[in-house]
């Protein structure tokens, strides 16, 4: 389950939005294609590592240096740095959003809000005001998307502007001293919280699906529940999935400690299958059951749920605690990677580390204030690092190893070229689709 657990990240909250960006049929095709390519290139890495050394499996970065050249070291470091930096920015934004939601929900229930307050009970009032069908109000794609909060917004203890101007700064006094520590071992012991938080999220999604029921229409584009099959903004989904299925830079680290090395391929397939199904359940569940226009699904789908929803509150609190524990661990890995590459040491001294942490937190705060779009950040970072580490480099390593053994089969060569082109096109498409 360690493979599955490592792939259960912030992309979980954005896949429903990403499916909405691509359309239902296209989403299913892209989801299967990206998962298949991710599994295949991960398989390539495992097999090439096994062939290169019979004693200890070399990391992908070491295989690239041996087979391609030392310049690939920096390529790996830059790609890994971008994915780690992007993850830290996303975690900070999510902590802000989850804290904002949790405070308002707790305040609502503390003031006597009914414990069974769900969308179903609000639907009658809402339909009369903010959430009319597109044929009655305005053209498709320009609907009001604040249906779930409705009159609850008037009762909030924290107004909307707190999300942008206050809460992004709240975490600075906590994390700035914490990130100065030389080792952050305590948070590494909380790995089980990741599995628990994913379980809570899946249960919350299934509960909301059961509450809402399926709200689908595949025929009438003017229907509020209309679901298109294909949309031109499909790159949003492929970018998010590149991050979701990204495991390749730490793959060997996981498998070289496996007691039963002969089961590596089996364990890889099981882990990716579980990840594929988990993302699919959350994405399809929210997309098909969402009771208003699908364009209204937000980049963090929890933002679509009412503050008076006890299930949403449980998910908010659990995920918030999870983000609090994950952020320092990822920041530590990021710091070690950067300073090991630049200075050859993992701890550069307290003053250099302080400057690094200030710049890191400043970037996170700026993103939370000016660009709190977690889905967009995930897709850009995922598409770039995926292009290099998940698509191109494994194919290059495989090709060179095959060349050393003799002529390369034309079919295999075409597959490797196709996968590499998919990665490149996916990254370029983020800026045009």
From TrEMBL:
Instruction: Give me the segments passing through the membrane.
Output: 24-46, 67-94, 161-179, 186-207, 227-247, 268-292, 312-334, 354-371, 377-401, 413-432
Q: Which reaction does it catalyse?
A: L-tyrosine(in) = L-tyrosine(out); L-glutamine(out) = L-glutamine(in); L-asparagine(out) = L-asparagine(in); L-leucine(in) = L-leucine(out)
Subcellular localization(s) per the UniProt record: Late endosome membrane; Lysosome membrane
Indicate whether Membrane appears among the record's keywords: yes
Q: Name one Pfam family in it.
A: Aa_trans
Q: Which InterPro entries match?
A: AA_transpt_TM
GO CC terms: late endosome membrane; lysosomal membrane
User: What membrane topology was assigned to this protein in its record?
Assistant: Multi-pass membrane protein
The protein's GO terms of the molecular function aspect are: L-amino acid transmembrane transporter activity; metal ion binding
Name the keywords, alphabetized: Amino-acid transport, Disulfide bond, Endosome, Glycoprotein, Lysosome, Membrane, Metal-binding, Sodium, Transmembrane, Transmembrane helix, Transport
Residue ranges of every copy of the Amino acid transporter transmembrane domain listed in the record: 2-106, 164-429
Q: What family is it from?
A: Belongs to the amino acid/polyamine transporter 2 family. SLC38A9 subfamily.
This chain belongs to the protein called Neutral amino acid transporter 9
Organism source for this protein? Ciona savignyi
Traced from the root, the source organism's taxonomic lineage reads: Eukaryota, Metazoa, Chordata, Tunicata, Ascidiacea
């Amino acid at each position: 389950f360690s493979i599955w657990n490592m792939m259960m990240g912030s992309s979980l909250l954005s896949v429903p939005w990403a499916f909405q960006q691509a359309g239902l049929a296209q989403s299913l095709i892209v989801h299967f294609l990206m998962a298949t390519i991710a599994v295949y290139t991960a398989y390539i890495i495992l097999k090439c590592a096994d062939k290169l050394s019979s004693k200890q499996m070399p990391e992908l970065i070491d295989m690239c240096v041996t087979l391609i050249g030392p310049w690939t070291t920096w390529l790996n470091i830059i790609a890994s740095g971008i994915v780690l930096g992007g993850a830290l920015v996303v975690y900070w934004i999510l902590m802000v959003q989850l804290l904002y939601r949790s405070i308002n929900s707790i305040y609502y229930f503390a003031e006597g809000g009914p414990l069974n307050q769900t969308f179903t009970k609000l639907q009658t009032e809402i339909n009369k005001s903010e959430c009319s069908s597109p044929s009655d109000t305005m053209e498709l794609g320009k609907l009001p998307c604040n249906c779930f909060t409705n009159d609850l917004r008037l009762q909030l203890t924290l107004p909307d502007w707190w999300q942008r101007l206050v809460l992004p700064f709240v975490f600075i006094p906590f994390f700035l001293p914490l990130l100065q520590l030389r080792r952050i071992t305590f948070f590494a012991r909380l790995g089980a919280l990741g599995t628990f938080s994913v379980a809570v999220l899946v249960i919350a999604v299934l509960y909301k699906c059961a509450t809402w029921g399926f709200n689908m229409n595949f025929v009438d584009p003017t229907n509020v529940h209309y679901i298109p099959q294909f949309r031109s903004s499909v790159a949003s989904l492929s970018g998010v999935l590149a991050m979701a299925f990204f495991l390749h830079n730490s793959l060997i680290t996981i498998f070289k400690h496996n007691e039963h090395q002969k089961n590596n391929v089996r364990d890889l397939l099981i882990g990716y299958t579980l990840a594929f199904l988990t993302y699919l359940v959350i994405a399809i569940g929210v997309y098909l059951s969402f009771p208003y226009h699908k364009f209204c699904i937000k980049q963090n789908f929890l933002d679509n749920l009412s503050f008076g929803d006890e299930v949403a509150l449980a998910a908010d609190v659990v995920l918030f605690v999870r983000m609090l524990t994950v952020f320092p661990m990822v920041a530590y890995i990021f710091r070690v990677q950067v300073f090991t590459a630049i200075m050859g040491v993992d701890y550069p001294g307290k003053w250099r580390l302080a400057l690094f942490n200030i710049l890191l937190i400043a970037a996170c705060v700026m993103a939370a204030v000016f660009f709190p779009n977690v889905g967009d950040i995930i897709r850009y970072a995922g598409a770039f690092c995926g292009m290099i580490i998940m698509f191109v480099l494994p194919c290059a390593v495989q090709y060179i190893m095959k060349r050393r053994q003799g002529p390369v089969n034309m079919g295999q060569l075409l597959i490797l070229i196709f996968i590499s082109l998919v990665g490149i096109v996916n990254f370029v498409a983020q800026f045009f689709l």
